[in-house]
Design brief:
CATH class of one domain in chain B: Alpha Beta
Distance between the termini of chain A: 66 Å
Subcellular location (chain A): Cell membrane
Largest sheet of chain B: 4 strands, mixed
Strand content of chain B: 5-15%
Strand order of the largest sheet of chain B: 12-1-14-13
Helix content of chain B: 25-40%
Distance between the termini of chain B: 28 Å
CATH architecture of one domain in chain B: 2-Layer Sandwich
Number of helices of chain A: 39
Enzyme class (chain A): oxidoreductase
Shape of chain A: globular
InterPro entries (chain A): Asp_de-COase-like_dom_sf, MopB_CT_Nitrate-R-NarG-like, MoPterin_dinucl-bd_dom, Mopterin_OxRdtase, Mopterin_OxRdtase_4Fe-4S_dom, MopterinOxRdtase_cofactor_BS, NarG, Nitr_red_alph_N
Number of helices of chain B: 20
Structural class of chain B: alpha+beta
Strand content of chain A: 15-25%
EC number (chain A): 1.7.5.1
Radius of gyration of chain A: 30 Å
Strand order of the largest sheet of chain A: 7-6-25-24-23-8-9-22
Oligomer: heterodimer
Helix content of chain A: 25-40%
Catalytic activity (chain A): nitrate + a quinol = a quinone + nitrite + H2O
Number of strands of chain B: 14
Largest sheet of chain A: 8 strands, mixed
Chain lengths: 1220, 457
């Protein structure tokens, strides 16, 4: 009988308020079943977020259900919080992609191209001819290129796609040369094999791969400038060792989500946290103090702080810790020659470093590369050990010991005043402003000396220069010095900066004092966490160097818990040597790869050079005039190319395979002679001199692991128009008022340069939509790969939670199959081996970096010197290529890998044969197999010092022998350890200490950049061998950047004088257009993810202040349209009082395939966040052949900065989708 | 005295980075299925702001939680059982939040991106997941994230409206707090009391509040009754659903998904023992500012031998008692009094507690001489951007001194630790004023900062 429950007797309590529920609870199994799963697989995401978090993916009945973070990282010890549970909401939503409607399941080809191809193949037996019949027919090529991005892709079989690609490649190689084939894939650390796959293929065939770190403007040029190091930073757990942290242009909770807790937690340890941000950003919530400078004025704030530190902690008192640090580890005691100021004949200005060659006529090796201090013990000028010159002295121990060769202690004088008799001079410094640059006059003590050439010179130390620049009062009655920090009339004081930055002088003074005092109390445990907010500017290096100056003055760099902590891009690939050798195919042809500088390549290939509005007048110093000035930055780039400062591929205006045939020789010397001759007499040109000529254009482009056309294509509409020939929103017109002098200017537009764009991706985003061939990539949960980052010290894997779905494959497998098809086609149609003449810039860390002494420009084209390959122009190299062997090489680890190590790795190579198996016959006989992804991972781990302790041990010994400093102990704990894929899958493994980094930390201590230099006295790879406040290359002095100084952001420009006329709107406001990284996406990744779109506003947005919104009568969530000469974006307004007036944020990487209406201005689809951006190359970033200012791929080169921009904003009155 | 055990949570808002990882991992594990699209068992709100559902704290609109009637007797704000029957309200519930109060879940016509060639580049546009029709987006579950649309939403925050002093929405005075929210698993759960079907219950062994999916009849009075609006209606199954405190994991000794995946490491889980016989009495405390303390009074000292004895007699397991003894929740909420319940004035006796956030100095306090006076290095409690009254409206029913005490304690702990790490002297008698000793300050520091996995869960 059914009993009514109301009459049941149940237990009551809490008076009668509560009763005990007695129903059965079997239903609870419902949620238990939901929770139940079959397996959990460790893998990660590869998205250049710098997180490199280990994730557990849950699988139920073969279906990926969800992901949670792994929590089993090795501990940081009992007194530091752990790394668990690294992750973020973006990563947590990844599983959505697996079965989502944006998933690319099959190979696709642009429908129109496919039709032409099938027809052409009927007419041509040879597929290479078939390809030629399309791309050499102007009507046909235009038809499929203009259709790019508009949909209409058709599904094809993979082998058909691979055949078309191979035909295009072979045609291009034969007709134009292999350097007309290019590839872009960024940030290897985020998925190392996947990066390596295409680069290995391209390196084997002779194509070029773009750099990315500089292109992204994530590279801080200041790092190579100051330290001769691409970037090295502490792991995030080292924040926990800091006692004072400034977050400067780095919005930690948003962009360092997994690491943010170290910052929030260290506050409880008593660490003060300061935020510097123009908006009330998410990280400001955690700060104790907040400085909100006007965007782009950060160097002003840093200079105000520097004034206080120099004045109160150097001039007014001697802090022994600071003094010792700056004498031993910085260039402050080094002497600089003072030359006549351009502004005033009676004044001096800072010139180049004094060299020992200036002061002694005795024969000293590499004397032009040895800079000079004054030793207070021996009372004489000497070149101390550790300079670049000593680095090249054979057989010498190269270190930073303050002793002479015979063991006498030396004591560098900080100031020239210690040298005895000195006098006083007036020195001019530049002070930059958008209202006109000024000359700052100061007193400086100088010593007059006679150089070996008989000329008389006034010299002073960098320390003297710094005190003079800041107007530190060294003598009573010095009317040129600042009165004190409240002196607003004296440049670079806190009061001076307030007028430029808007930050109160007393706050700047307070923070500076606290920072320095904390550094004294803790021996340097003060840290600045810095990032894109200050690095993405045209004058980013001024922001960075002024901040780094504070850190160096307070002895923080190289100290555990101190120094800079720059995190922009996942730059730290830990198992480096094995990875690089496989990636660039050094195992077959060491040095046969082409590593192109991304920014300059795009600058020419997308024709942005033709639209330059910026002449450099405002950037030049009023007190110094260099010998080589150009109005147009394209001319600077040309100079950089011909002097061997920057690489330039495509190389010449002829096929790089033609030289040996044309000259009838393979003798390198003979070829060099011919090339030099032809260059001199103008018969041979660099292709970059005429980038629009048909034979000089890039023809085929590979993209994988990237969404270049939206995410990182600065000047996206120039890409659309010139590179792709697609519909675009470009409003600018070529600027024929500012033509470069050293380039060919062609009237009329060159559009659609690329014949073939190949993309591999797992989601349909704009790059896939604008490509001609799309291959379905396996997701991060469907393949094996490796991951590492600078944020944490671990190496951990990607693993297959499930097999690749539909027809997807890993990138390694795709390129392997392409190599196979390509090689087979080559056997039929292009079987003879060829010689490829390769140019190469003067490389950092090679003898090329001592190619061009004294920082003086000598241009062979102007007859100032002879063109000498490898010294005054790019070096030349002959590479033998056999296109029939690409596949056999791709799938095997070649024996030449052993030549690339400075120690014997034969045992490790042999071990790999046993671990991976090897081939029986052919050119790869007895070589370890690289045909499977896991094999590649295993080979990388086995051949790298960070993951094979034996190799690290050998490398430390090598370095110990070179420097004479004991180092072997650092790696000793791991000498018998080696990582395997299985081991890192069981648990993330901490990378072994290796000399490829700059940390001396071991035994469980946190990775701390430059601690090797400080603790073990290893020189920096700079001209002085020290951290440099001063840079003396001619171009730096010309741009007023010898010492770091405030430079304003580029002046506002929305439209150029000759650009397209825009119909005026009733209400419009001009705002700074900035694209900081956002909260709901990592680049365009996750931007299309339904969960992330749901958690904010579901489409493109821009953030603006209530005041600005009011000016154009825009309310929250209204559609707006914003434009400048570069392009147009439509988006909805987010109105918030956390935004400062005058600035607009369009958070980075809002791709335009989601909810993006048409523009009323162009009538076309609104662009991505990159539509209003353009490339601004900076000449100082091009300098090469000079110490730390030498080219390295992703190490030095012009950045693709995109912050110095403005846009007009108006309400989008009519929202039109126009979907036919 | 009747001792019951309760699993509870503390969230340290001072560490919350507002990343929403908790929301996403929770959603993927529990509610990414038809009928549950709009459900976020766990969500994160930016305060000041309207939250999700919009203005959920406005109980004048939603009538959630409890109130005292004229006789001072505790009753549901939405009306008694009698009220439901007598007035026929069971068939018409005007207090019920509607879909628009949450948001209409959407997706996109992504397939367009693979479609035919068009005049312009194709785009994916939003489509409703309810109707399948195109829609324009005007609201969502986190629409006012990070002060987005503050011109519209900040003033609508009921906690702001309660503050008497003038708080300007301008750049110079901007402040915000992240508030992650889940079911409170209240000691005095109004949802359970509201359910006409008897489908909701509080588990005897751990206090987790659940909706029996077999017994639920879809009356939805739990949605009204819950002042936190943390019970949802699944429009496919026609049942109410809510946060289960991940009982399938808790039963296996694992923390909840939201807690384990919390990247800010702000969440702690632990057990509490309380006197279930005094819940009604405590919840009936007349003065709203005293409710927080009244709730504290319910918790029993798990190390008191008498309590242990009685607990065992009342059927509490040894494991649960041991868990209560080690409980970080007990330490932070009861012992150190740095964690507070969310809106105690709802008289629900909620069991998800929050540590209030510190915040930067207001601009008019800048430029202090912290070299001569090291205590000036951190913002004083009265100089902070987040108004203490705002936090009190959120966490103590307006009890400002309680919030200040907690912030003083956190600030003093920082100063003490700063002296330790920078080698400066520190007058330890200052710790006493905030109820700390040197060793207690150190262990509190470790709990908040070092916070290893096993210390949190």
């Amino acid at each position: 009988m059914l009993k009514s429950r109301f009459f049941n007797k149940v237990e009551k309590f809490n008076g009668t308020f509560t009763q005990l529920e007695e129903h059965n609870r079997r239903w609870e199994k419902l949620y238990r079943q939901r929770w139940a799963h079959d397996k959990v697989v460790r893998t990660t995401h590869g998205v250049n977020c710098t997180g490199s978090c280990s994730w557990n993916v849950y699988v139920k009945q073969g279906v990926i259900t969800w992901e949670h973070q792994a929590t089993d990282y090795p501990s940081c010890g009992a007194n530091i919080p752990g790394y668990e549970p690294r992750g973020c909401p973006r990563g947590a939503s990844f599983s959505w992609y697996e079965y989502s409607p944006v998933r690319i399941k099959y190979p696709y080809i642009r429908g129109r191209l496919w039709k032409m191809w099938t027809a052409a193949k009927k007419d041509h037996e040879n597929p290479i001819d078939a390809w030629a019949s399309i791309v050499e027919d102007p009507v046909k090529e235009k038809e499929y290129k203009t259709a790019r991005g508009k949909g209409g892709m058709v599904r094809v079989h993979r082998n058909e796609a691979l055949e078309m690609i191979s035909a295009a490649l072979l045609y291009t190689i034969k007709t134009y040369g292999p350097d007309r084939i290019a590839g872009f894939t960024p940030i290897p650390a985020m998925s190392m094999l996947s990066f390596g796959s295409g680069v290995r293929f391209l390196s084997l065939i002779g194509g070029e791969v773009m750099s990315f770190y500089d292109w992204y403007a994530d590279l801080p040029p200041a790092s190579p400038q100051v330290w001769g190091e691409q970037t090295d930073v502490p792991e995030s757990a080292d924040w926990y060792n800091a006692s004072y942290i400034i977050m400067w242009g780095s919005n930690i909770p948003l962009t360092r989500t997994p690491d943010a807790h170290f910052m929030t937690e260290v506050r409880y340890k008593g660490t003060k946290v300061v935020a510097v941000s123009p908006d009330y950003a998410e990280n400001v919530k955690f700060a104790d103090d907040w400085m909100a400078p006007e965007p782009g004025t950060d160097s002003g704030v840093a200079q105000g702080m520097t004034y206080v530190i120099l004045n109160e902690f150097y001039q007014q008192q001697t802090v022994p810790y600071f003094e010792q640090y700056s004498k031993q580890y910085t260039d402050l005691p080094f002497f600089v020659d003072l030359t006549t100021s351009e502004a005033n004949q009676d004044h001096v200005t800072a010139g180049r470093f004094v060299r020992i060659s200036d002061l002694t006529s005795e024969k000293v090796s590499n004397s032009e590369w040895k800079t000079v201090i004054f030793d207070q013990n021996s009372h004489q000028f000497i070149a101390p050990n550790g300079t670049l010159g000593q680095q090249y002295d054979e057989g010498k121990k190269w270190n930073l010991e303050l002793t002479t060769e015979d063991g006498q202690a030396i004591d560098p004088a900080l100031s020239v005043e210690a040298t005895g008799e000195t006098s006083q001079a007036i020195i001019d410094f530049p002070a930059f402003s958008n209202e006109g640059n000024e000359v700052v006059q100061r007193h400086i003590p100088v010593k007059t000396v006679e150089f070996t050439d008989g000329t008389t010179h006034q010299i002073a130390t960098v320390y003297d220069l710094m005190l003079a620049q800041y107007g530190i009062k060294r003598y009573e009655g010095d009317e040129l010095a600042a009165k004190d920090e409240t002196d607003a009339t004296s440049a670079f004081t806190p009061a001076w900066q307030e007028k430029r930055t808007g930050v109160k002088a007393d706050l700047v003074t307070q923070i500076a004092r606290e920072f320095a005092q904390t550094a004294i109390d803790t021996n340097g445990k003060c840290m600045v966490i810095m990032g894109g907010g200050v690095n993405h500017w045209f004058n980013a290096d001024m922001n960075y160097r002024t901040i780094i100056n504070i850190l160096m003055l307070c002895g923080c760099v190289g100290v555990q818990g101190g120094g800079w902590a720059h995190y922009v891009g996942q730059e730290k690939l830990r198992p480096q040597e094995g990875w690089a050798n496989i990636t660039f195919a050094n195992d077959w042809e060491p040095g046969g790869f082409r590593q192109q500088q991304g920014t300059s390549w795009y600058y020419f290939a997308t024709d942005q050079w033709r639209y330059e509005e910026m002449d450099n007048q405002a950037q030049y110093s009023p007190v110094y005039k260099g010998t080589h000035r150009y109005l147009n930055n394209a001319d600077y780039t040309q100079m950089a190319i011909r002097l061997g400062w920057l690489p330039s591929y495509p190389e010449f205006d002829r096929n790089s395979l033609s030289f040996t045939k044309d000259y009838g020789t393979t003798d390198m010397q003979a070829i060099s002679k011919h090339v030099v001759e032809e260059l001199k007499n103008g018969k041979l040109h660099f292709a970059a001199e005429d980038p629009d000529a048909k034979q000089n254009q890039p023809k085929a482009f590979f993209l994988w692991r990237s969404n270049l056309f939206a995410s990182s294509g600065k000047g996206a509409e120039y890409f659309m128009k010139h590179l792709l020939g697609a519909e675009n929103g470009l409003l600018a017109k070529p600027n024929n008022r500012l033509k470069p002098q050293d380039m060919v200017w062609r009237d009329g537009d060159t559009t659609g340069k690329l014949d073939l764009v190949v993309d591999m991706d797992f989601r349909m985003v704009s790059t896939a939509m604008y490509s001609d061939i799309v291959l379905p990539a396996a997701t991060w949960y469907e393949k094996e790969d490796l991951s590492s980052t600078d944020m944490h010290p671990f190496i951990h894997p990607f693993n297959k939670a499930i097999s690749p779905m539909w027809e997807s494959k890993s990138d390694w497998q795709h390129f392997k199959l392409l190599a196979k098809t390509f090689s087979e086609m080559a056997k039929k149609y292009y079987s003879e081996p060829v010689y490829d003449l390769k140019t190469q810039p003067l490389g950092h860390g090679t003898p090329g970096q001592v190619g061009q002494p004294m920082g003086a420009i000598k241009d062979w084209k102007k007859g100032e010197c002879e063109p000498i390959p490898g010294k005054t122009m790019p070096s030349l190299k002959l590479v033998k290529r056999d296109y029939t062997q690409i596949y056999d090489k791709f799938i095997a680890l070649g024996p030449n890998i052993m030549k690339t190590y400075a120690y014997d790795v034969q045992p490790q190579y042999n071990e790999l044969k046993d671990i991976l198996g090897s081939y029986d016959e052919g050119i790869n006989a007895d070589c370890p197999r690289l045909d499977e992804d896991k094999n590649v991972a295993e080979a990388i781990l086995h051949m790298s010092t960070a993951s094979n302790g034996k190799l690290a041990d050998l490398a430390w010994k090598k370095k110990e022998a070179r420097t004479g400093e004991p180092l072997e102990d650092i790696g000793r704990g791991h000498a018998d350890d080696v990582m395997s894929f299985e081991k890192i899958t069981a648990q993330p493994q901490e990378a072994y200490p290796t000399p490829i980094g700059t940390s001396a930390k071991h035994g469980g201590d946190r990775y701390s950049a430059f601690s090797l230099n400080i603790e073990r006295k290893i020189p920096w790879e700079t001209l002085t061998g020290r951290e440099q406040f001063y840079l003396d290359h001619e171009i730096f002095l010309d741009f007023g950047e010898g010492l770091a100084t405030f430079k304003p952001s580029l002046p506002p420009q929305v439209m150029g004088p000759a650009d397209t006329d825009i119909k005026p709107a009733d209400k419009e406001v001009t705002l700074r257009y900035m694209t900081p990284h956002g909260k709901w996406n990592i680049h365009t990744m996750y931007y299309d993810n339904l969960e992330m779109l749901t958690l904010f506003r579901g489409g493109p947005t821009v953030w603006m202040s209530p005041k600005d919104a009011e000016k154009i009568a825009v309310k929250d969530n209204d559609w707006v349209e914003l434009y400048n000469r570069n392009g147009v974006v439509t988006a909805r307004a987010v109105v918030s009082h956390r935004m400062p007036e005058g600035s607009l944020y369009m958070y980075h990487a809002q791709d335009n395939e989601i909810y993006e209406p048409l523009s009323t201005i162009t009538g076309n689809r609104g662009g991505s966040h990159n539509a209003p951006t353009q490339i601004h190359v900076k000449p100082t970033h091009m300098v090469g052949g000079y110490g730390q200012l030498s080219y390295g791929w992703n190490y030095y080169g012009p950045t693709g900065n995109q912050r110095d921009l403005y846009a007009n904003v108006r309400k989008l009155e009519k929202v039109n989708w126009n979907e036919d | 005295m009747k001792i019951k055990a309760q699993i509870g949570m503390v969230l340290n808002l001072d560490k919350c980075i507002g990343c929403h990882t908790c929301s996403v991992t929770c959603k993927n594990t529990w509610t990414n299925r038809p009928g549950a699209e709009y459900m976020w068992f766990n969500n994160v709100e930016t305060k000041p702001g309207v939250g999700y559902p919009k203005r959920w704290e406005d109980e004048e609109q939603y009538h959630g939680g409890w109130t005292l009637n004229a006789k001072g007797k505790l009753q549901l704000k939405a009306g008694s059982k009698l009220n439901k029957i007598a007035l026929g309200k069971i068939f018409y519930n005007e207090d019920m939040p509607e879909l628009d109060n949450y948001y209409e879940p959407w997706t996109y016509d992504y397939k367009t991106l693979f479609g035919k060639e068009r005049k312009h580049q194709p785009v994916a546009r939003p489509v409703s997941q309810i109707t399948g029709k195109r829609m324009e987006l005007t609201t969502g579950p986190n629409w006012d994230d990070d002060l987005a649309g503050s011109t519209e939403y900040v003033q609508q925050d009921p906690n702001m409206q309660k503050i008497e002093s003038d708080i300007k929405k301008n750049f110079e005075q901007a402040f915000m707090v992240y508030l992650p929210r889940l079911c409170e698993h209240c000691l005095n759960a109004p949802c359970v009391a509201s359910c006409p079907s008897g489908a909701m219950y509080k588990r005897d062994e751990d206090g987790i509040v659940l909706v029996d999916q077999e017994r639920c009849r879809g009356w939805r009075f739990c949605m009204t009754g819950c002042p936190y609006k943390k019970v949802y209606f699944n429009w496919k199954t026609h049942k109410a659903e809510k946060c289960t405190f991940c009982y399938p994991r808790i039963e296996e000794g694992m923390p909840t998904v939201c807690a384990e995946t919390c990247v800010g490491r702000i969440r702690y889980i632990g057990a509490m023992l309380y006197d279930a016989d005094r819940v009604e009495e405590a919840a009936s405390t007349a003065d709203e500012t005293k409710l927080y303390e009244a709730q504290l009074g319910l918790f029993l000292d798990p190390n008191d031998p008498e309590v242990v004895k009685q607990a065992l007699a009342d059927g509490i397991s040894e494991e649960m008692i041991e868990a209560a003894q080690k409980s970080p929740i007990y330490r932070m909420a009861v012992k150190e009094k740095i964690a507070f319940p969310l809106h105690p004035e709802y008289r629900t006796m909620p069991m998800v507690w929050y540590i209030p956030p510190l915040s930067p100095v207001m601009s008019y306090f800048e430029g202090r001489d912290s070299i001569k006076n090291p205590e000036m290095i951190f913002p004083g409690i009265d100089q902070m951007r987040v108004p203490v009254e705002y936090l009190a409206n959120l966490l103590t029913g307006g009890n400002v001194p309680a919030i200040k005490q907690a912030l003083y304690k956190l600030a003093m702990m920082r100063l003490f630790m700063r002296a330790q790490t920078s080698g400066h002297d520190f007058d330890e008698s200052k710790l006493k004023k905030v109820g700390l000793t040197a060793s207690r300050a150190k262990s509190l520091y470790r709990l908040l900062a070092i916070a290893k996995y096993e210390d949190r869960f």
